Amino acid sequence: MKSVRLHGTGDLRIYDEPNPIAGDREKLIRVKAVGICGSHLHGFSEGEIGDAKLERPLISGCECAGIMEDGRRVAIDPAFLCGHCEFCERGYPNLCANIIFAGHGKHDGASREYASYPTRCLFPLPDSFTHADGAMLEPLDIAIHTIYLGKIKAGMIVSVFGGGPIGIPLLILSFLSAALQRQLTVLFARHSRIINIIGGLLLISVAIYDLSKNWDLLRLFFKGI
Ligand SMILES: [Zn+2]
Ligand SMILES: [Zn+2]
Asked: Which of 137, 162, 196 lies at the terminal end of a domain, its last residue?
């Protein structure tokens, strides 16, 4: 199979390598769609993200969708949980102390033709979903969870910090979850053109600030919060 491995800053190389073999409680997936998220971009431009430094040529790519050997189409949760730590047992698997994230740290991701995943991480896709839709479910899920945590209600003015693959769904969901909402603020937006188009479609006014160039404004926002 073909794979793409990141060797260092700006250094991606294509490989021909054997297909992975699915282990116990795993399935082999033919990858059909994989996202390029902020983790990828940091890895590509800086060779690291947070505490995860690039220690070997890594196959990046976390959010993805594909086809199982029996032909079923699935979206894939790239977070592999241990299921037995304190947090998993208390019903907070998102805080798992032993979490493994595909495409991050030591664990290869989905920028390849075949990958194996734990069966519990596979979710069947309805026919109406494309594979790209399936790959977007993971960032959409984060945005939905954020809306729950933020307790967004009608009439609130919402500020979204960041206008990337999480921020944009968050922008749309903020609008959908607050019927009277007509004003949204997006901070640190790299994709201001897309955000302005979405604002136009939803008939909302979107104010975009690049706070990376204006620390006084950032202080003001946090004081406001
Ligand atoms: Zn990702
Ligand atoms: Zn755990």
From this structure: 137
pLDDT tens digit sequence for 160-202: 777 778 888 887 787 777 644 555 555 555 566 777 777 666 6
Q: How many Å lie between the centroid of ligand 1 and the Cα of residue 96?
A: 17
pLDDT tens per residue, range 79-102: 999 989 999 999 988 899 999 989
Rounded CA-CA distance 130/128 in Å is 7
How many of the other CB atoms lie within 10 Å of CB of 82? Answer: 14
169 CA distance to ligand 2 centroid (A)? Answer: 28
- What spacing in Å lies between the alpha carbon of 31 and ligand 2's midpoint? 26
Q: Per the structure block, which two tokens stand in for 66?
A: 């594909």
**How many angstroms does the Cα of residue 51 sit away from the middle of ligand 2?**
19
Q: 87: domain range?
A: 2-137
Domain match, 117 and 193 both = no
The closest ligand to the CA of 61 turns out to be: 1
